[in-house]
């Protein structure tokens, strides 16, 4: 069968089977629009295969997601990772049969009757808006679905099942656990092969694995899920990034502030967080008054701003804080440093006049650009508009959204649009970075907010001595230190550049009489905030060198008689993959220059 199968027309995949129609054959592409339909159809093919292999299975939902597709289902069979290949084999058999994928519609009443013996379908039908539902059928398999799909199963050969997991029904931790299988699909074999190679590389770079090997951080189920502990090396890495960002903020006119981590719930009610974000907050009662641990830092900065009167001459006013926040994430979504319940944002709030929005946004974009270039990330920007769950008038939202668009367009900066993806209080620019193996991550954000300044009656005096309400720009560049360090770890595969490496040098003295010189050099380097370790345990020299290499430090330095005699070092440069000898003072100067290059 030919791999040439169709094309996208007005958002739909069109069958062109030239052998039957004489039309010109056109390949599918891997555009987002095409992949949405391919992967949606692949999810149904997977469900059909599971149903044939495990007839008593009942299905819940099978959406397309960023990492491909999945299906949640209930089965009395025991399915493990080893069964994925069996399911894949069945999928290929079904694909070869080229079952037509056909749609028909039912009223909700008819659907409830049709699926009367399936409580998962009953639940789903009752969640669907409107009075009619659609069903897609292929062979003996059918399921509720809004579509669209491919014309037949015969086009679904570039599919791979990637993992098996558990998933709570409807995401409710108190509900039953369903089985979830993830998969990926592409328009061609080459793209599937490249993606699977990327996944293999991603496994090697997994920040949880590298974090354990390099002793950067840990988690303790005894202490609580989603709460990271920073070990000495990880704390050094984090501190170096914090210091670089601190200096960068100060030279750009930001003032450091710090607010408490818990506030009365009255504050969160006033801000709108309680209504729009309450289910993600940790609440407690103190002296018969309800308090909430902060999920965000903005209220603290608002109260600091309001401490004294402000003039237009004081604006823009830039506050920044490494703010610790807590969010009640469900246990099923916790994932290393990427999704935790306590994290620290590199948060800032810029209070400005409406006329200053454009310049402020462009100033932040320049800051973002400097940071991303320093860590070797390329990036794109996306404007996210008003979500369903939001506060504020449509006119205010439109004004804020236009302000973001005008700022980017004034510098001919490209951006995408994420309809409905804004924060509940305002539209935003999301910064999406691309790592060393091509994966995209959402990190920084720039949010324009007219709502909170009005709710908290923030004011400044304009040039006519009249009171006006300022605009608040919420801004984070890294997003959070936890998540960004997780991304950095995978981006560099643990091979951190010298300016942030938790340990920059490991000294390996050849014999015990060389330890004193190694300690002397280590103490001297420490004066310039260059972190060193000495491997002088009672192991062979080769073993100590191997252990040092496994720590992926930029430099392993061998110390022997010749080095002591010449006040020199024998350097193994891991990044350049070179070995060379230098005077100790020249090596010191080299390291200091590399660390200074880390400034933003």
CATH topology of the largest domain: BirA Bifunctional Protein, domain 2
Helix content: 25-40%
CATH domain class name of the largest domain: Alpha Beta
**Largest sheet: spatial strand order:** 13-17-18-25-22-21-19-20
Structural class: alpha+beta
Sheet bearing the most strands, described? 8 strands, mixed
Total count of domains: 3
Low-confidence stretches: 1-27
Shape: globular
What is the count of helical runs? 19
Structural Rg: 29 Å
Describe the secondary-structure layout.
Blueprint: E1 6-9, E2 12-15, H1 18-21, H2 32-53, E3 58-59, E4 64-65, E5 68-74, H3 84-96, E6 102-107, H4 108-114, H5 119-127, E7 132-138, E8 141-144, E9 159-168, E10 177-185, H6 189-205, H7 207-213, E11 217-218, E12 229-230, H8 232-251, E13 255-256, E14 262-264, H9 265-271, H10 273-277, E15 283-286, E16 289-293, H11 298-305, E17 317-326, E18 342-352, H12 357-374, E19 378-384, H13 394-410, E20 416-418, E21 428-434, E22 440-449, H14 451-455, E23 460-461, E24 467-468, E25 471-476, H15 481-491, E26 505-509, H16 515-526, E27 532-534, H17 541-550, E28 555-559, H18 561-566, E29 568-573, E30 578-583, H19 584-596
Parallel strand pairs: 13-17, 19-20, 26-27, 26-28
Antiparallel strand pairs: 1-2, 3-5, 4-5, 5-10, 6-7, 7-8, 9-10, 11-12, 14-16, 15-16, 17-18, 18-25, 19-21, 21-22, 22-25, 23-24, 28-29, 29-30
